[in-house]
Specification:
CATH architecture: Alpha-Beta Complex
CATH topology: paralog of FGE (formylglycine-generating enzyme)
Distance between the termini: 46 Å
Low-confidence stretches: 7-28
CATH class: Alpha Beta
Mean pLDDT: 91
Number of domains: 1
Number of strands: 9
Structural class: alpha+beta
Radius of gyration: 21 Å
Order of helices and strands: HEEEEHHHEEEEE
Length: 251
């Protein structure tokens, strides 16, 4: 028996197996324009905010992917053209305003966002996934950290006053995972119903209507809404000029 040949064969087979495993991992962690969020625990909610943002608790999530930025007008138009889906109400002649290709699509309802996600082979993130993508594992107050910085995100100086910007325009408004525009520009739909967190002991009046969670700040909202744990909610047919969405997908 030629032990040398057997050793070489085993070594080559082992090397090949390791190489394939590494390539598979690289491919698994790479989807164009999406960010891989690893599995694990993170702290969700806060005991220092609105009552319906409590109690602060540890949540375990499986790995997932989330869009690097909000869905843009250009991306949404491909969907509209391909499916003949009704465009947002502010579009003219079935298209968005001139030179706004890379701006987030807005004036879309929850159903509009779900329809786009289905067409794209994706889904809306849950509010838990959204918060983890923004907050990571260290309870940070803002996507970039715990300290507020001037002009770091597209928010309103005074409530209702501001201007929408292209996605990714604020290079510092990103989480440690490189997910952009979580603190400002436009707020975003999630697929989650607005329900009390496990262990909630506050007034149930906030949860009497069927509402869906919206996350993130916007160019029309002040600093208060830029926090990673901030919750807002609307009826599913709500359409606003500062409300858009981003997609997610299972690993």
């Amino acid at each position: 028996m030629n032990f040398k040949k057997i050793f070489v064969f085993i070594f080559v087979l082992f090397t090949f197996t390791i190489t394939i495993a590494k390539l598979k991992k690289i491919i698994t962690l790479s989807i164009p324009n999406m960010i891989y969020i690893p599995e694990g625990e993170f702290v969700m909610g806060t005991n220092d905010g609105f009552v319906y943002e409590a109690p602060e608790q540890k949540i375990y999530l499986k790995a997932f992917f989330i869009d690097r930025t909000e869905v843009t007008n250009r991306q949404y138009k491909r969907f509209v053209d391909a499916t003949k889906y009704p465009p947002p109400k502010h579009w003219k002649n079935n298209t968005y305003p001139k030179n706004m290709d890379n701006y987030p699509v807005v004036n879309v309802s929850l159903e509009d966002a779900l329809a786009y996600c289905k067409w794209a082979g994706k889904r809306l993130p849950t509010e838990q996934e959204w918060e983890k993508a923004a907050r990571a594992g260290d309870k940070r107050t803002f996507p970039w950290g715990n300290e507020w910085e001037i002009n770091i995100t597209n928010k309103s100086i005074f409530l209702g006053i501001g201007k929408i910007k292209p996605v990714g325009n604020y290079q510092s408004d990103k989480s440690i995972y490189d997910v952009y525009d979580l603190a400002g520009n436009v707020r975003e739909w999630t697929q989650s119903k607005f329900l009390p967190y496990p262990g909630y002991t506050g007034d149930m009046k906030y949860f009497k209507e069927e509402l869906y969670v919206v996350r993130g700040g916007s160019y029309k909202l002040p600093k208060l809404f830029c926090r990673t744990y901030r919750r807002d909610a609307f009826k599913k047919d709500t359409k606003l000029p500062d409300l858009g969405f981003r997609c997610a997908i299972d690993k």
